Design the sequence.
């Protein structure tokens, strides 16, 4: 990776650590790096071949990121049975924790790093230019890593998978379900660069359709409820992208939008299951699994990470939250699957 990219990333990441997207929800999602649970070791003594240690840093605990991590581990255990030990850490939504975790992985000399979400990816890129880094649950690598003239391949020691569902199709879905709406509220965490990217992109599509869009940015869980209330007051429908802070606090959002009678279109099924009515969603397990397959190729020398393009989910699915639809007296058209 070019030096100017890493330098920009480091300064950008330091600024992000000051942005108030910390918190990331309550309970396990807020586990500080120093107090995380003992790293799991899913691998066993190798039956044959080399043994590998893989460091996993997950930005916070919520359904989507958990599924990506599980898919990654399942793929590696299938491709390299008994050969991989996983060192897992949860950053609790804090960039500073991601940096500490990555420094630990580098000091330990792990063979590969999985950076599950944007903060871990940025911290890993700042920590090492040598150890292979695979990202997952990252929406736009160019935005996350401050790369100009994006070609689809990061280069250097970084590649991975994206959780971006087609934003134009998400806008089409919103129009299909709410053709008579006028005002669309765009709710997101201001400290998550990939959320900003999604909001700015989908706003363009929605405004071309004739909607009036207003951005409602919250900084962390402390102002989330009040920002959601403001969004409800000015919106006929709300859109929430694949935002980690929102995903970790869907109950807080639901406690405002459902009584207010304002439906939420979500960027992924985990958010939709908590506070939304419908989503065009990828499978986070699938992108995690794909990342695990990439990891196996890198560890065994079958592939060069510097030439591996970022991969995307092969399928998207229209899904709906039956309970929230019933609460808001909404009937979904054919072609939508209920969220289990």
Sequence:
């Amino acid at each position: 990776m070019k030096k100017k990219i890493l330098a920009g990333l480091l300064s950008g990441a330091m600024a992000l650590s000051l942005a108030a997207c910390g918190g990331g929800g309550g309970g396990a999602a807020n586990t500080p790096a120093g107090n995380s649970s003992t790293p799991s070791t899913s691998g066993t003594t190798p039956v044959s071949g080399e043994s590998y240690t893989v460091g996993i840093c997950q930005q916070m605990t919520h359904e989507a990121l958990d599924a990506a991590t599980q898919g990654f581990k399942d793929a590696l255990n299938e491709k390299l049975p008994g050969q991989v030990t996983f060192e897992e850490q949860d950053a609790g939504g804090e960039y500073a924790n991601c940096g500490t975790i990555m420094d630990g992985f580098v000091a330990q000399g792990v063979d590969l790093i999985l950076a599950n979400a944007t903060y871990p990816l940025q911290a890993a890129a700042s920590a090492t230019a040598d150890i292979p880094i695979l990202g997952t649950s990252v929406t736009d690598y160019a935005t996350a890593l401050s790369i100009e003239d994006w070609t689809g391949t990061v280069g250097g020691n970084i590649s991975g998978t994206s959780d971006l569902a087609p934003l134009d199709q998400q806008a089409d879905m919103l129009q299909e379900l709410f053709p008579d709406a006028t005002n669309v509220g765009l709710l997101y965490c201001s400290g998550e660069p990939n959320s900003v990217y999604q909001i700015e992109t989908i706003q363009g599509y929605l405004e071309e359709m004739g909607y009036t869009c207003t951005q409602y940015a919250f900084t962390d869980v402390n102002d989330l409820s009040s920002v959601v209330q403001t969004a409800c007051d000015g919106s006929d429908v709300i859109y929430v992208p694949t935002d980690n802070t929102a995903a970790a606090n869907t109950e807080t959002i639901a406690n405002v939008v459902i009584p207010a009678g304002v439906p939420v279109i979500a960027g992924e099924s985990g958010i939709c299951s908590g506070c939304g009515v419908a989503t065009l969603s990828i499978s986070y397990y699938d992108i995690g699994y794909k990342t695990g397959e990439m990891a196996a190729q890198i560890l065994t020398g079958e592939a060069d990470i510097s030439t591996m393009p970022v991969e995307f989910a092969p399928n998207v699915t229209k899904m709906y939250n039956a309970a929230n639809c019933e609460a808001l007296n909404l009937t979904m058209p054919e072609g939508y699957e209920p969220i289990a």
User: Anything to note?
Assistant: Residues 63-79 form the longest helix (17 residues). Confidence is low (pLDDT under 50) at residues 1-47. The longest strand covers residues 52-58.
